[in-house]
Amino acid sequence: MILAAAFSAFFLQAQPVMLNCASATAQGASGFTTLVCAGEREVTQGEAAQKGTADARRHFENAVEAYRKAEAGTSVAATLTALLEILARLYDAQHLNEPAQAELVFRELAGINPDDLTVLFRLSRAEEDQGQLDAAENTLLYAHHLRPDNPEPDKMLAQFFARRVTDLSRAANDLATAQTPAPKAGEPDKDGFYRVGGDVPAPRRLDNPKYPPEAQDVGIQGVVIAEISLNEQGTVTDIRIVQSVPLLDQAAIDAVHNWRYEPAMLNGRPVPAKMTVTVNFSLRK
Domain span at residue 267? Predict the structure, then answer.
């Protein structure tokens, strides 16, 4: 999925927490302190073990058990939130990699902090990553209705729909490609356009796409892939989007229309050609 990995890293990442063995011990010895320290010890041992091994997993599972027991021993909202943030981290891809459990943790966090938009965004992303697309959309819509004057829920919705259209576009293109195989590289299609590759090297081009401001404003980025047709002079005569990113497609088309290529050559003579190009839109850090 275009753009999915980058956003998951942000939303499923545990936020900084103040609860650890040292802070719990400072409050005095108790069963709660013992459990927090035991959980922290298991996490440290799990992260020291080789990643992906049964030994690492065992330590992380032991940590979850300790923190869950600690959770049952407190009713303080701030402490519960801190414990749940630790659990969310343990369920992420770098530890136990259990998105379904992470989703449950985010639901618990939402129950404690129902007005926290960040929690709702993380919950929506966990739902989306599991393929629960209707639930993910509804969570973002709830966030929108909760804070209708806040632009962040609308930005998240725009990015969600951008990813959905990108995935649907890719699936449709894969199906069309499977049903109508493209000609081999260096061979002409039914319209006489040569597929770049083999005896027809890719022509060079210049120019860069302009990032549309409306896409920048909502934080949409990604790669648009297009199939272009070039005449014997190297002019782009046709563009077909094969991997779409909403709000970026037209900018990609506009950019590619302005690109100028050297003619594609076959046996020393210019020929019409078709090739696939990528237009990368990336937000500067």
Answer: 184-281
